[in-house]
Amino acid sequence: DTAVSQTPKYLVTQMGNDKSIKCEQNLGHDTMYWYKQDSKKFLKIMFSYNNKELIINETVPNRFSPKSPDKAHLNLHINSLELGDSAVYFCASSHSREAEIPNTGELFFGEGSRLTVL
Amino acid sequence: QKEVEQNSGPLSVPEGAIASLNCTYSDRVSQSFFWYRQYSGKSPELIMSIYSNGDKEDGRFTAQLNKASQYVSLLIRDSQPSDSATYLCAVEGVGRRALTFGSGTRLQVQP
């Protein structure tokens, strides 16, 4: 029973196209994230949602638009894809604990979505 | 300066040896520290967390934290070939509510 699931796992597309990646978690967590991992394995936060509210929006081009219809889902839509968008995109979730250390509980990652822009 | 820095490696150790992985961070008020392991083509998985100065042991793994030096390390005793992976150091700052990752150290355990 997959805890954090992403679809699709692989995505090959042409420059200029628009694509979406979907993420769902069944762990009952209240916080979800999108991370981007480039070819050098650097894992960088893009967005974070807590109970459907955007709480982190890093310096990401406007072409990237996250959407959280409910706290179990966080989707990522990318417009006008560019070569530099090629990467593995990981969705993750955690149980936020504001008054505790750590605030961010253990991150549970999805399997990743490998995006290749040609 | 990167927020979380790790030597990319690869770090190569013989089977049965101790592997020592290091990480430094720039935000002095960071409060929580994590080590994730990522096998090639897979997603990261948590192996250790540490919040207080000193050592924390869990099986063959020991995490060490020195907040004054802004340094966190992971020791793997009796290294096995199955430990060969990339180890990602992650740091949570105060009020950050997300983890900042280093670029990872690739560990190779030679049989």
Task: Provide a short characterization of the protein structure.
The complex is a heterodimer of chains A (118) and B (111). Chain A is mainly β.
Structural account:
The complex is a heterodimer of chains A (118) and B (111). By secondary structure, chain A is an all-beta fold. Chain A has strands at residues 4-7, 10-13, 19-25, 31-37, 43-50, 53-57, 64-70, 73-78, 87-94, 108-109, 113-117. In chain A, strands 2, 4, 5, 6, 9, 10 and 11 form a seven-stranded mixed sheet that branches. Chain A has a four-stranded antiparallel sheet with strand order 1-3-8-7, with no helix packed on it. In chain A, strand 5 (43-50) and strand 6 (53-57) form a beta hairpin. The radius of gyration of chain A is 14 Å and the shape is globular. Chain B is mostly beta strands. Chain B is globular. Chain B has strands at 4-5, 11-14, 19-25, 32-38, 45-50, 54-58, 61-66, 71-76, 85-92, 100-101, 105-110. Chain B is 0% helix and 53% strand. Chain B has no helices and eleven strands. In chain B, strand 4 (32-38) and strand 5 (45-50) form a beta hairpin. Classes of the chains: A mainly beta (118), B mainly beta (111). Chains A and B meet through strand 4 and strand 5 of A and strand 4, strand 5, strand 9 and strand 10 of B.
